[in-house]
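Regression test case RT-17, inverse folding.

Input:
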């Protein structure tokens, strides 16, 4: 481990590489109704065409295009609704057809009902038909033997609908990553208790547990650790017994009561510490025994920003998911940033009238800034910003 500060991108690549080396894990088959948010462990190839046969895209009349000229009068020989098997279309006739109904053999076009004058069982065409008009051809959406989803894809509601449409009722997915979450700090008190002098409520635990759940992880433990070296080592050892990943908050700086760094070095290996970013500089990455560990800063904004930039891609890599690149936009600044910092800064911001404005309080302890924000502005080390200058923006919506 080097004491030199790594750039955010260097840290991301180091952490992602470690995650990819441990990629995947146990695979299980689950019913479709239990697959939301799970990561596919297989490529999905369709065994059928969707739709399975030519069908009508509109309510109207199925015809032979060569017979369906402007002003032609045709008798209606049958009615075809969705879910019924049509008879072959009689020569010189039309078939009343409803949206989604299978096209009668012999028909090659559908004239919509607004372009037809019907009298009894006879229609007069107000427009000529061309082959293929208003028809959804067999396999238009999905062709048989085509790949529709790839391994590593995290399943969304629309994906489940797609799987159902090709007759898949089960899928092979990776088991969720088991995460042990440890909050360090003797000053921490859980919400619901009365604060004593010197204490603060533990905001990191519910925030990070929710972020981990949002990433599809199973949070197997949520413990609080006092600022005690022996207890820190004991709790880390216990966390490693039942988890695929340990996430801690606090205790990774250089204070007298910051014990996580030393405990990780005693129990395993610390491969990364200190990132050239603000907030979030004191971040530890290593392992306890064979279990990877991320030690996030204790300040809640630092923990949030570091999670999104560094922990989320690690979880994607570990869980078999494709790792998402950061999505940047460039927008003009509505603020003045005169001071050039020594680290990349991620300021909480919002877009108003096409310009980026900053939250007035940028302290790493001001969690209200994250609640207010809709994006992070990346201000490179050594840069100063003037109003109107283009800045790089990371929309929070990507996460």
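Golden output:
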């Amino acid at each position: 481990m080097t004491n030199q500060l790594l750039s955010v991108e260097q840290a991301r690549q180091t952490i992602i590489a470690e995650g990819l080396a441990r990629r995947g894990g146990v695979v299980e088959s689950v019913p479709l109704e239990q697959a939301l948010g799970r990561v596919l462990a297989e490529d999905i190839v369709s065994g059928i065409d969707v739709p399975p046969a030519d069908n009508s895209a509109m309510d109207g009349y199925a015809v032979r295009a060569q017979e369906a000229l402007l002003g032609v009068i045709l008798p209606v020989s049958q009615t075809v609704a969705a879910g019924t098997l049509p008879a072959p279309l009689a020569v010189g006739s039309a078939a009343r057809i409803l949206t989604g109904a299978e096209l009668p053999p012999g028909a090659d076009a559908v004239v919509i009902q607004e372009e037809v004058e019907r009298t009894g069982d006879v229609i007069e065409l107000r427009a000529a038909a061309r082959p293929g008009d208003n028809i959804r051809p067999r396999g238009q959406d999905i062709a048989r033997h085509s790949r529709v989803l790839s391994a590593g894809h995290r399943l969304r509601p629309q994906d489940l609908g797609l799987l159902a449409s090709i007759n898949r009722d089960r899928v092979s997915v990776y088991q969720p990553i088991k995460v042990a979450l440890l909050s360090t700090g003797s000053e921490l008190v859980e919400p619901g208790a009365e604060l004593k002098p010197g204490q603060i409520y533990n905001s990191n635990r519910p925030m990070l547990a929710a972020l981990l759940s949002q990433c599809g992880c199973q949070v197997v433990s949520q413990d609080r650790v006092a600022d005690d070296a022996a207890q820190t080592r004991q709790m880390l050892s216990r966390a490693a017994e039942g988890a695929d990943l340990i996430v801690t908050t606090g205790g990774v700086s250089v204070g007298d009561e910051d014990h996580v760094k030393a405990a990780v070095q005693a129990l395993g290996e610390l491969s990364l510490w200190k990132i050239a970013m603000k907030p979030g500089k004191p971040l530890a990455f290593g392992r306890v025994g064979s279990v990877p560990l991320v030690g996030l800063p204790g300040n809640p904004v630092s923990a949030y920003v570091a999670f999104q930039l560094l922990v989320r891609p690690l979880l994607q890599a570990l869980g078999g998911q494709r790792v998402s690149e950061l999505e940047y936009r460039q927008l003009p600044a509505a603020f003045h940033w005169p001071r050039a910092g020594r680290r990349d800064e991620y300021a909480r911001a919002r877009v108003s009238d096409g310009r980026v404005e900053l939250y007035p309080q940028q302290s790493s302890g001001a969690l209200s800034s994250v609640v207010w924000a809709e994006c992070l502005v990346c201000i490179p080390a050594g840069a100063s910003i003037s109003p109107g200058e283009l800045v790089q923006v990371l929309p929070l919506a990507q996460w």
